[in-house]
Design brief:
Shape: globular
Strand order of the largest sheet: 6-5-4-7-8-11-10
CATH class of one domain: Alpha Beta
Number of strands: 16
Radius of gyration: 21 Å
CATH topology of one domain: Rossmann fold
Structural class: alpha/beta
CATH architecture of one domain: 3-Layer(aba) Sandwich
Number of helices: 12
C-alpha cells in the first residue's frame, strides 16, 4: 500500500486488532452472523509518520446510511455551540454577510449553532435519512459526499468551513483538500476537529481505532497533508470532547500569523514522542493489558450473579467488544438513546440493543460511551444501586 498522505511506500504494521466487522454495521435479526469482516490494522508511514489503516471499507458502505446522530448527546451540542461562538467572536463577529459549509454535517447540529449567529449555512452529508433530518429542521443540506467535484458545482466561497470528526474518515483525501482550498475565502478559516493521536495514546483509547477512521492525526502529520494543498494550521487548541480532541484552525498558506499556543502544542507533541513508531507499539501492548483487566472485572461480576448491560452502542464500542471478546456471556444487551438502533444487534458480538428508557437498570453498566462520562454520571445520579464501570477511564 501507499501512504494516504505522502504516497510513500515504506509502511510498518504498528497495531493489529484482528479481523473485525465494520463497527457501525448494526444488524437486523436475520443478518446476525452474516456480516463481513475486514482487517483492522494500523500501519505507520516511515516517511511522514502518519498512522493509517491499511484496508479501506468503501465510503458508500460506511456512510450512505449511518445510524449515528450528532444531536443525541447534550455534551456534543454544547461543544458545537462553544466552537461556533469562538470562531464567530474571534474572526467574523462584525461581518454583515457570513457563511459556513460543514463537511459531513450529519443532522445539522453544528450548523444550527452557526445559524443562530446569523450565518448562511450549508451542510454536505452522505447519509440520506440523516440529511433529511437536517433539512426538515431548516438546515440546508446536500445529500452527497464532499469532494472536488462537488466543490466545482458551488459558486459561493465560505468564511468558515468545518469538519467535525470526519477529516480522518476520508477515502478521497486529496480531492477533499482540493475542494476546501477552492471554496475557502482568502481570509477564511477551516475548522478541523479531530481525535488527537497523542490523547489516544495517553488514554489508551485504542477503541477509537475503527474502519471509519482511516487516519490518525497529530499536528505534525495533519500539517504534512495540508501543505500539499496550499493550506496550513495557524492556530490550535485542545478540547475534552471524545476523550481529547484537537481543534485545528486552518487557513490558506501564509495568510494568517501562527499563534504562540500552536507553537507550544507542537513542542509538547514533539517531546511526547507520539510521532514515533515505538509509541504505537506501546499502545498495542497496553491495549492487551487492558483487555485482561476488563475480562477479569466482568468475570468477577458474573460469578457474583450481577446483571451487566453495556451503556451506549458507539462504533468504538464495537472495536472494544470484538477485540476483548465480550458478548452475551458477559452482557445481556446494549442500551441506547438513538432510536435508529432500536431492535438491532451489535456487529460481531451480536448483543441486542434496547432503548435505555424501556428497561430497568442493571447491577452494572459497562459504559462503552465513556467519552460522555460526566454527562452519563450526572444524568444517572438517581441510580445509586447501579455501578458504572468505564473500560477506558479518563
Amino acid at each position: 500500500m501507499k501512504c494516504r498522505v505522502c504516497d510513500g511506500a515504506d509502511l510498518r504494521l504498528a497495531i493489529d486488532l484482528g479481523k473485525q466487522p465494520w463497527g457501525n454495521h448494526f444488524l437486523k435479526e436475520d443478518e446476525v452472523g452474516k456480516e463481513p469482516t475486514y482487517p483492522l490494522e494500523v500501519h505507520y508511514c516511515q516517511n511522514c509518520s502518519t498512522a493509517q489503516l491499511n484496508y479501506t471499507v468503501k465510503k458508500e458502505v460506511m456512510f450512505s446510511d449511518t445510524t449515528y446522530l450528532s444531536g443525541t448527546t447534550g455534551t456534543l451540542s454544547a461543544h458545537f455551540n462553544e466552537i461556533a461562538e469562538t470562531i464567530d467572536n474571534t474572526f467574523f463577529k462584525d461581518r454583515q454577510a457570513k457563511s459556513v459549509l460543514d463537511i459531513g454535517s450529519n443532522d445539522g447540529t453544528q450548523l444550527s449553532h452557526y445559524k443562530k449567529l446569523g450565518y448562511n449555512v450549508l451542510g454536505v452529508e452522505s447519509a440520506k435519512r440523516v440529511a433529511d433530518i437536517a433539512n426538515s429542521n431548516q438546515i440546508t443540506t446536500i445529500n452527497s459526499f464532499f469532494n472536488l467535484d462537488l466543490a466545482n458545482t458551488l459558486s459561493e466561497k465560505f468564511d468558515v468551513m468545518n469538519a467535525s470528526g470526519v477529516f480522518f474518515h476520508l477515502e478521497e483525501l486529496h480531492s477533499v483538500c482540493q475542494g476546501i482550498k477552492k471554496l475557502l475565502k482568502p481570509d477564511g478559516v477551516f475548522v478541523c476537529q479531530f481525535l488527537y493521536m497523542k490523547s489516544i495514546m495517553e488514554n489508551c483509547a485504542f477503541d477509537q481505532i475503527y474502519h471509519e477512521h482511516l487516519l490518525y492525526y497529530t499536528l505534525q502529520t495533519l500539517n504534512t497533508l495540508l501543505e500539499r494543498h496550499g493550506l496550513e494550521i495557524f492556530d490550535s487548541f485542545m478540547t475534552p470532547i471524545h476523550g481529547g480532541s484537537m481543534i485545528a484552525l486552518i487557513s490558506h498558506k501564509n495568510s494568517r500569523t501562527k499563534t504562540k499556543r500552536l507553537e507550544i502544542l507542537q513542542q509538547e507533541e514533539a517531546k511526547s514522542g507520539c510521532n514515533h513508531f515505538e509509541a504505537y507499539r506501546d499502545l498495542a501492548k497496553r491495549a492487551e493489558i487492558l483487555k485482561h483487566e476488563n475480562l477479569e472485572f466482568l468475570e468477577r461480576k458474573k460469578q457474583a450473579g450481577k446483571t451487566i448491560y453495556g451503556m451506549g452502542a458507539p462504533c468504538k464500542g464495537n472495536t472494544l467488544l470484538n477485540y476483548f471478546g465480550i458478548g452475551p456471556k458477559y452482557l445481556d444487551c446494549l442500551v441506547e438513546k438513538n432510536a435508529f438502533r432500536k431492535g438491532l444487534y451489535s456487529p460481531g458480538m451480536y448483543l441486542p440493543i434496547w432503548m435505555e428508557d424501556e428497561v430497568a437498570p442493571p447491577d452494572v453498566y459497562y459504559v462503552l460511551a465513556w467519552n460522555f462520562k460526566n454527562e452519563i454520571l450526572k444524568n444517572n445520579q438517581h441510580l445509586n444501586k447501579t455501578e458504572f464501570y468505564f473500560p477506558i477511564n479518563i
